[in-house]
Amino acid sequence: MIDTPQILLVEQEQSVINQITELIDKIGFMKPHVASTQDEAKRIAGITRPDIALVDLSMDVACHGKTTARMLSEEYNLPVIYLVSREDYENRSGVQTDYGFVFKPIDQRNLEKTIMLALSRHSQMDNFSLLISDLPFPALVIAADSLEVLICNTMFTDQFSGIECQQKLSDLSENKSQLEDEIVQVVKYQQTEKKSVVLQRILPTKSDDKVFTIHARQLESVNLPIVLITLVRNETTTADDLFTYSPALQLHLGKEGRILRASQKWLASTGFSPEDISGKPLSELVTDASRQNWMIEEYLVRVPSENEFSQTLMIKHKDGLETPYLTHFSILPGDGSILAVFTEEAGRVSSEEETTLANALRDTAEALTSTLNFDEVLDRILINVGLVVPNEAANVMMIWSGVAYIVRSIGYAERGLEESMMSLQIPISQESHFLSMYSTGMPLAVADTQEYAALARPSEINWARSLASAPLRSKGQVFGFLNLESSQPGFYQQKHADRLQAFADQAAVAIENARLYAEVQQYAITDELTDIYNRRGLFELGKREVERARRYGRSLSVVMIDTDGFKTINDTYSHAVGDHVLRAMADRWKKSVREVDILGRYGGDEFVVLLPETDLDSAIQVADRLRLAIGSKPIETPAGEIPLTVSLGVAEINDAVTTFDALIETADHAMFEAKTSGKNQVKH
Questions:
Q1: Which strand (E) or helix (H) includes residue 189?
Q2: How much is the average pLDDT of 61-69?
Q3: What local confidence, expressed as pLDDT, does residue 343 receive?
Q4: Do 79 and 121 form a contact (C-beta atoms < 8 A)?
């Protein structure tokens, strides 16, 4: 989910604009774009591509045939939150919104909560839409409490009439259609019983009445009960269907032992596609050792007389892994072709596979333990994990305050997705995939992410079709996750996740060792007096932030602060009182900046605040807030209250300012101008 959303504010009342802009800055979001008309909102949305819109309900009138909210929702796929006074809300009680209301006067806590919930829900709606769009049968996503049809796929709209997206189904109307009535009843039953519902009904389609199997189940969602409805038409079941959709792992072989087709379960288990194996001899999929103990020609001689035969075979999967299966062969009546049914033998792993895993873990252990640099450890984890489990992309997540963040990744830059991945924030409690690993400490594999509603992901990064994840554990606690991704459906099975866990346990030790070392190193970059970053820490982090901002084209600003008349305090009261003042100033500023901002003591009575994701205009506002944090109230000291002011200079990176040194120098010049032109002010 987006942590610093770009907001489009559609509002005409200047006092409301000022209040929301100030609150959004305090929350730490980007400065909103403001529009006063629908045409202006459309123009801004087309240029800036915001993440969410706040629309004054009194301005949501039809223009060019659409209300502002509808235009932003339909044309730019934006979640829209209404701004409304209590009076307007009561007068327009029929107004509905999927993403909530914010009441005037605006409350900061309610504003932030409503925006974040709206973004979470919108992200999940995108994922649900992706989930059902490619289903080969009609499907709908319905809000259980309001009975609103949130999403329906083209298969549904092609076959049925009378129900559309965004329509609220009626529970009371006597005029509702049979289809509407059936769907309402199945949703209500699912919510009452709290379990999946499967039933058969004759439903009217656009052409005629047909028998459908209706399946209803609840999806994981944010703050809203969501039900997925699928309608599968009942056709005459054929032998081909029974084979294809059988829960067993099975192959259909010709008389000469070549593969004719495979069940979906067999394909998912081995990772092959039908094109990979069609026409191939089964003998090509077994190991050399298995082939020596079994010859298809011998089997073909035996089957006609014995009619069936069993043999343990070591089958090679697409990813190179080998699995032992008890394989039962039987001849089919009629054409004499052969049915092969595979049952995995539990507890058996080839010695070759064990040796490969042991060697890989030994080699990676040496690589991981040869450095204590935290970033290098993460890089080596991502580079070496491919020796244990193949992957197209991988990432390491760390957990802070119940939220998982990607701290390192590999394989996404080539797809243009690195920035999207690195900005992900996943609340553990809202993602059952990660919550399961966090609670149990056990790894998970997802054969096909498109059939896995427990993992909500922004649509632009849904290229991965298979996923293997393992928790990073230390002293019985899960502190992060190691995730591998593949674009091939069915690529990962649980055995891959189990192998990954062996590597993840090794990686967790290396991460914890690097963490401890980093904590020791932290003392070297912390100012002892104020407990904020010292000059060395500022430059280390500053250079990294400049590199990141330039790499991803992000905003980055800095505020340089000088204490007005500080020498007089030392001379008048003592250096001890001066130290007390410096500590008090740092404490006030800690409460005035965001968690992502970097506050440090540059030297003496000079301080620096580095502001990631902040442009110059927003940084000037932050600087003035820092100025007021000191100047609005005297500093309490053992020698009494001391009034104090500061002078501040602001600068941002741009085409002319490309290094941290240049950024500091530019801000320093601006600060000097503030100091020499009257003090207690901000210059840029």
A1: helix 178-193
A2: 78
A3: 74
A4: yes
pLDDT of residue 237 exceeding 50, the answer is: no
Rg of the chain, C-alpha, whole Å: 31
Complete DSSP assignment for 209-256: EEEEEEEEEEEP-SSS-EEEEEEEE-----HHHHHHT-SSEEEEE-TT
Contact indicator for 664, 608 with CB cutoff of 8 Å? yes
Residue with tokens 């699928």: 230
Give the amino acid at 59.
M
Q: Residue with structure tokens 């820490």?
A: 537
Residue that the structure tokens 């340089």 belong to: 560
What is the per-residue pLDDT for 92? 60
Q: Model-level pTM greater than 0.70?
A: no
Residue 4 structure tokens:
């610093």
The CA-CA-CA angle for residues 455, 273, 230, to 5°, reads: 45
**Amino acid identity, residue 262?**
A
**H runs (alpha helix) in 423-533:** 432-440, 494-522
Cβ pair 111, 83 in contact under 8 A: no
Average pLDDT (63-80) is 84
Q: Is 17 helix (H, G, I), strand (E, B) or coil?
A: helix
C-alpha distances (whole Å) from 25 to each of 15, 21, 594, 625 are 16, 6, 10, 11
The one-character DSSP state at 218 is E
Q: Which residues contact 485 (CB under 8 A, 6 or more apart)?
A: 391, 392, 393, 394, 411, 464, 466, 467
Task: Domains for the chain: give ranges and CATH numbers.
Answer: 7-123 (3.40.50.2300), 134-233 (3.30.450.20), 240-348 (3.30.450.20), 352-522 (3.30.450.40), 526-683 (3.30.70.270)
